[in-house]
Amino acid sequence: MSELEEFSGLVGDIYDASLDPGLWPAVFERICGFLPGSAAHLFVQDSVSKHGKVFFAWGTDPDFIRSMVETYGKLNPLFPSAIFFDIEEVHQLIEVIPREELCRTRFAREWLQPQQYIDDVFCLLEKSATSCSVFEVARGRRDGVVDDDARRRMALIVPHVRRAVLIGKVIDLKTVEAAALADSLDTLSAGMFLVDASGRIVHANASGHALVAEGKVLRAPGGRLGAVDPTANATLLDSFSAAEGGDPAMGRKGIAVPLQAHEDEPYVAHVLPLTAGARRKAGASYRAVATVFLHKAALDLPSVPEAIVRQFELTPMELRVLFAIIEVGGVPEVADVLGISENTARSHLKHLFEKTGTSRQADLVKLVAGYSNPLLR
Description:
single chain; about 375 residues; alpha+beta; Beta-Lactamase; Arc Repressor Mutant, subunit A; five-stranded antiparallel beta sheet
């Protein structure tokens, strides 16, 4: 099988998983074969409390997944620094923390090394004021360290993974039969439209009809779906045409297209191609090439770490020390978690006191808590 054939089939499976979450582990296995990698995870992490949840995984023993959620997620050196990366950017863990420092951390000693993971390539799929969702592929000894080809392949699949995850989040259903897609989504609170390559609406749910009737964010002249905003309209039309060309042609077209209503209410549109995989049944039934989901966007606030770093001009290591203090407590514990000497930890703590105008660790905890409460900002 050529790389193009393998990639095309993989993307089709990714979009099928947006309608059936139970397919994600098998999709992750295929992604690990494509990169290659030894394990893949999709998880969300709170940037303040460090509490995390693993949504889907493949290749990692369930006991290690459990320990990640209960213990090691809070020690993961990926956070809180990862929140500063842009959505869909492909990165390695050693970009966040040098390999020498990483190897000294408890996370590496007790979670990575027992599984013989030697490297990791990841990207953010979403981030908000308090959390971010991460898709990562771990590399074992047989895979070698992340190279340019692995990063290139990760960059190819990331837009499709992100679109599928976002659509699955909007749908919020356990399983949707592709052949009955329109019927099963007619009661969805988000607006939903099935369209052909030119944007002609072949089906819309009740919420979709209401949005077009209001004319605040969408319009349908001549029965063709379009956005009120000209720029967003062009992006949507491009995504409809791309959907006709098959799953791989979608690329980054139509991912989280921002739409602005006249009253300044922000909306977001997601486009799911219906030209391959199990979704082809729905496309053929309705002579459609794509499904468009439209819903109100969440308020886009800066993340807690971003706000703190910007306000107090902290270095990446100072930020790690700050959140380690909040999570594990005193200097000895912080030094052990981060794999640094106690003198180094004290030095960073001294800089934190100076930059934030505090004098006690309890004051640092209160400071971060204040930034995590929007009423106190």
